[in-house]
C-alpha cells in the first residue's frame, strides 16, 4: 500500500480534533480557542502541527505538546511532528470569542486591551467581575495562580477572581 | 575574510551573546525561586515564583540559541548544569544574595528597567532568532517592570521602616548597575554587525526610568559610585558558587538524571 495516500485526514478535520483538546490548566477552553495552534499542514505523509507558547516558562507547554500528540495518534495519525513557533509572539487577542465567553462562564475574566505588555502606555483597566458583572473591581496582584493571570477582587459582590492578563 | 569564516565568527559571537542573556535570566530566576514559600505575603510569593518562571522560560530560549549558534551539540540543560563559576556570563547584580524583601525587589527593579529597553532594542537585531526571543520575552518583562517599579514606589514612599530598607537596598546594589552599560570587544562586534545595541546606548532610558521612579519613591541614588564588573568574563562574586552548588547538585551527583 502507498503510505502517502493511506491516511491523510483533511486538515479541517484535524483542526476539529485539536479543538477538542482542553487546555491543561483551564480545561473549559480548547487549545484552538486559546489561539496557540498556528498551523496544520501535511508534508507528504508527515503531519506538521505548529504551536506557539503562551508564556516562555509556562509549565503547561510540555503537557500541551503531549496531549496534541496523544490525541492525533488516537485518531490514527502515525507520523507527526510538533514545531514551535515564537514569532509573531502569541497575544491574548487570538483567544476566540467563544473562548472568552467560556472563560467568563468558568469564573475567569477574559483579557481586555490596555495592560502593561500591550503597545502603548498603562491605562486604567475595565475588568468586569465574572460573577456579578460589576465594573467596580480592583487588582490585588499582578500575578495570579499562573503567569497568564492576575488576581482581582470585585468591590460590589466582594468575590475574588482571576483575570486573564492581556499580552 | 572568506564567507564561511566570517559566518562562523558571527555564530560564535551570537552564541556568547545568547549565553550572557541566558545566564542573567537563569541566575535571577534562581534567586527569585529561593523565595518560594518564604515571601512576606502570599500574593508576593506567587508573583516571585511567576517572575522566576518567566525568567527560566526565557533562559531556555536564550541557551537554546547559544547551543544552536555554537553548533557543538550541547543542550541548554548541559550548559546550565555542567558549567562552573568561571563559565557563567551573568551580571554580578543578579547573583547578589536576596537579602530582605526590599533588596530582592530593588535588584529586580534595577534589572527590569534595563531588561525591557534591551529587549525592545533587540527586536531590531539583524538575527531573526534574537528578534523572536526578544519579542516574546519583552511582553513578559513589561509585566515584571510594572510590578517591581510599583512596589519600589509603595515601599520607598511607605513607612519609615520600609523607606529605610529600600534606601539601604539602593545603596548596596548601586555599584552593580554600572556593569550593564559597559562594552567589551564582543559588544562592539555585535553592535557593528547590527546584532545587539551598544550597552551604553541603553543608559539614558534606564536612567530616566530610575530617576522618575526614585523621585516618586522618595529614594536617592548615590551621587558617587563605582562599577563592580567582571561577570561577563566569568569573574564572579563568591555568591555564584553557592547558587551553582545548589542548582547543579542533582546533575553532578546523578549525571543525566531525568524526570
Automatic annotation (TrEMBL), chain A:
Residue ranges of every copy of the MIP18 family-like domain listed in the record: 12-73
Pfam families cross-referenced by the UniProt entry: FeS_assembly_P, Zn_ribbon_PaaD
Organism superkingdom: Bacteria
Domain called PaaD zinc beta ribbon: residue spans: 125-165
Protein name: 1,2-phenylacetyl-CoA epoxidase subunit PaaD
From TrEMBL, chain B:
Keyword Oxidoreductase: yes
Domain of life from the UniProt record: Bacteria
Uppermost EC category: oxidoreductase
GO molecular function: phenylacetyl-CoA 1,2-epoxidase activity
Keyword Oxidoreductase: yes
Matches recorded under InterPro entries: Aromatic_CoA_ox/epox, Ferritin-like, Ferritin-like_SF, PaaA_PaaC, PaaC
Keywords (A to Z) from UniProt: Oxidoreductase
EC number: 1.14.13.149
Pfam families for the chain: PaaA_PaaC
Name of this chain's protein: 1,2-phenylacetyl-CoA epoxidase subunit PaaC
Record organism: Bosea vestrisii
Gene for this chain: paaC
